[in-house]
Amino acid sequence: MKLTELNLHHFRNYDEAQVEFSPQINVLIGENAQGKTNLLESIYVLAMTRSHRTNNDRELIEFGKDAAQIKGNVQRELGSLKLELDIGKHGKKAKANHLEKARLSEYLGQLNVILFAPEDLALVKGAPTVRRRFIDMEFGQVSPKYLHDLTQYRDILKQRNRYLKQLQSHEAQDQLYLEVLSEQLAAVGGAIISQRVKFLSELEGYAQKLHQSITQGKEKMTFEYSSTVKDAATLTEVELSEALMELYQQNQAKEIFQGTTLYGPHRDDVRFLINQKNVQTYGSQGQQRTTALSVKLAEIDLMKNQTGEYPVLLLDDVLSELDGARQTHLLKTIQDKVQTFLTTPGLSDVARNLIKEPRIFHIRDGQIIPEKQPELKTEVFYPTKQDKTANKE
Predict the structure, then answer these.
(1) Helix axes 128-142, 285-307, angle to 10 degrees
(2) Domain co-membership, 341 together with 374
(3) Domain annotation covers residue 290
(4) Which of 308, 337, 352 lies at the terminal end of a domain, its last residue?
(5) Are 276 and 348 found together in one domain?
(6) 30 is in an annotated binding site
(7) pLDDT tens, N- to C-terminus, the chain (393 residues)
(8) 105, 196, 239, 351: most buried by Cβ count inside 10 Å?
(9) Are 120 and 137 within 8 A, CB to CB?
(10) Which CATH number characterizes residue 158's domain?
(11) Does one domain contain both 11 and 100?
C-alpha cells in the first residue's frame, strides 16, 4: 500500500498544495511551525477521518476559511484508489473512487497508517486510556467487525451511564430497563475483549522478535491483558459475556450509587512485561522506550498479516527522541519494506548513512519544496581510432 499523491485545500496552514511521493522513504524537513507535522497529520486524517492532535475539526481548516479538503491517490495490490475527505462546519464527508460513504466507519481501512510520534513513547508509562486508545485505533483499521462492535459498545455504554445517573438521582426507577442495557453491553463487551486478546497475542509474537533483536536476546517481552473480568484471556466470548453480566448484577447497587459503569473493556488495560517484570513500574527509561518502539514496529507485520498489504508508516520527529542504536534499528526495520513519511528538523549522520535514496522535501511556511534529486553521472565515450577500426571489422 502506497500513497502516491496528496492534494490539500485549505488544510491547516496549507492554502493549496499538491505533492507526489516516493514509494520508499519521504523525509519532510523544516523548522517548527512551518507545516511539516501538518502535512503528516493530513495523511493521518485522510486515512483515519480524524486527527491525532485535536478533537476539534475546526482547527484542521485554514484560518478564515469555511472548509478543508484532502485528496489522495493510493496504490494497492488490487489497483489504484482515489480517496477524498471533505471537512466542513457540519461534519465530514468521505469518498472512495468518487463514491460517498454513508458512514465514516465504512471508509476506514482504505488507507492503513501507523503513526509513531514522541507522545507514543507514553504508550508504556502513560495512563490506561492511552493503551486502550492504541488498541482501538490500530485494531479498528484492520478489523471491520471490531470497529463495528466498538461503536456499538460505546453507544450502549453511553445509554447505560445516562440511565444509571437517572436512577442515582431518582429521576428513573425502572431497573428492568437497566437489565436490558446490561445484557446488551455484556454481549458486545465479551466480543470486544475476546478480539482484543487474540489481536494482542498476535502482536506480542511480532514484538517479541523485534525486542529480542534490539536487546540482543538479553530481554524477553510479554503482554498481559488486564481486565475487570477475572482470567479474561482464558475465557471464550460467551463466557466473557456471562462473566460481565454477572458483574453487572452483583454490583448493580454500587454502579447506581456512583452513576457509571464500572466493568467492561472500557476499563481494561495492557501490561508490558520485561523478563516477567512490569516495565511500566520497574523498567528503566531505556527499557520503556525500547518496548514502545518494539510494539509500534510490530504493528507493521500485524497489519500485513491481517490485510495482505503493508501499511504506510508516519514518523513524527521520532528520530530526535531515540539514541543512535534505536535509530539504527528503526531505520533498518523499515528500509525497503514499508512506505515511510518522516518529519525532522534535520537528518542526523546516522539517518543519512542508513536511508537509501530518500525523497526529501523542505517545508517552509506552508510550502512544499522538493529537494533536487542528484543526477546520475554519465561518462561520455569518445572512440579512439583503434576503436573505430575494431567496430568496422
Answers:
(1) 20
(2) yes
(3) yes
(4) 308
(5) no
(6) yes
(7) 999 999 999 999 999 999 999 999 999 999 888 999 999 999 999 999 999 889 999 999 999 999 999 999 999 988 999 999 999 988 999 999 999 999 888 899 899 999 988 888 778 988 999 999 999 988 988 898 999 999 999 999 999 999 999 999 999 888 899 999 999 999 999 999 999 999 999 999 999 999 998 888 889 999 999 999 999 999 999 999 999 999 999 999 999 999 999 999 999 999 999 999 999 889 888 888 889 989 988 999 999 998 899 999 999 988 888 888 888 888 888 888 899 999 998 877 767 778 888 899 999 999 999 987 655 444 444 444 444 443 443
(8) 196
(9) no
(10) 1.20.1050.90
(11) yes
* 241 located within any domain: yes
Q: Would you say 261 is a known binding-site residue?
A: no
In a domain, 117, yes or no: no
Total domains present in the chain: 2
| Helix (H/G/I), strand (E/B), else coil: 260 | coil
pTM: 0.85
- Give the containing element (helix H, strand E) for 213: helix 175-214
Q: Which three cell numbers stand for residue 85?
A: 475527505
Instruction: Compute the distance between CA of residue 50 and CA of residue 41 in angstroms, rounded to an integer.
Output: 9
Residue 259 is assigned to a ligand binding site: no
Tell me 313's DSSP state.
E
* Domain-located, residue 118: no
Query: Is 95 known to sit in a ligand binding site?
Result: no
Place of cell 502506497: 2
Look up residue 317 and give its three cell numbers.
520527529
Instruction: Report residue 151 CA to chain centroid gap.
Output: 18
Under 8 Å CB-to-CB from 32, ≥6 apart: which residues? 345
Q: Does the annotation flag 189 for ligand binding?
A: no
Known binding residue 190? Answer is no
Residue 68 counted as an annotated binding residue:
no
276 lies in the same domain as 324:
no
CATH number of the structural domain spanning residue 351: 3.40.50.300
Annotated ligand binding at 32? The verdict is yes
Q: In whole angstroms, how large is the CA radius of gyration of the chain?
A: 25
